[in-house]
Amino acid sequence: MTNSIKRGMILGFIGIVCFSLTLPATSIAVPYFGEVIVGLGRTVIAAIIVGAIFMMKKQALPNKGQFKSLLIVTIGAVLAFPLLTTFAMKSLPVSHGAIELALLPLATAGFAMWRGGEQPSKRYWIASIIGAITVIIYAIYVGFGQLQKGDLALIAAVIVLGLSYAEGGKLSKELGSWQVIAWAILIGAPFFIIPVGLSISGSMLQAPVEAWISLLYLGIVSQFLAYVAWYGGMAVGGIARVGQIQYLQPFLMIGFSVLFLGESISWLTISLAIIVVGSVIVGKNAPVMKKEVHLE
What we know:
Helix content: over 70%
Number of helices: 12
Order of helices and strands: HHHHHEHHHHHHHE
Strand content: under 5%
Protein name: DMT family transporter
Membrane topology: Multi-pass membrane protein
Largest sheet: 2 strands, antiparallel
Transmembrane segments: 39-57, 69-88, 124-144, 150-168, 180-205, 211-230, 251-282
Shape: globular
Keywords: Membrane, Transmembrane, Transmembrane helix
Domain EamA: 7-137, 149-282
Strand order of the largest sheet: 1-2
Distance between the termini: 34 Å
Number of domains: 1
Radius of gyration: 18 Å
């Protein structure tokens, strides 16, 4: 494995660990701040930080082609995913959401072939399918087979974030990893200020410390710093290969839900986690071919 792939895998893992705290933090914050503040307010918080960084660095504007890609990232990572997961976390436990979000690697790989020009090998797809089937079996076993509105929201979130991940990973190679999510945040934030402002109420001041910490985490880490590591990892290690690390995310989420929310964990979860980790090890070492694509 080359140094660039190793660096990409390390950055990707850091990003996934940070993302794995997103659903637990959302679950803690939503009852006190509501869907709009948690779903959109995190972007406003991140925009303050990004704006200060851009002013200090005097960042150049993206070109027309880059701006089109940034719109895709903005719609997926900044608008749709936060809102959809916030809605889902009103009615679903974190473990439920974690299992469904485990389908992200397949969505990311599919969009990577379309937008990034990557062609994963058969070994990669076999590893991906094994990982996906494993988490589906887990979901069925624990009784999550019946679709609810929250399930539909999470499935939609998987689709839009898969496209956003692939587009952001591709764009990171020319724009820079942290610049991709930073520009997406700045593009989306102005549209969120009014609804966020109208949703602020005095009762929020009574929210406990853990709720405020969760909201700040969502704005600073989940919405910005985690994407810096994640897009940076995909840029140097390959979208499809680094995307395999996402199979660890459901089990990290479940672990964090035990730690912070008091949810229980079984030996079945641990056993299936070992299988998923094995698929990641196989998949990340599988060859990934590259072809030239010409997008309008």
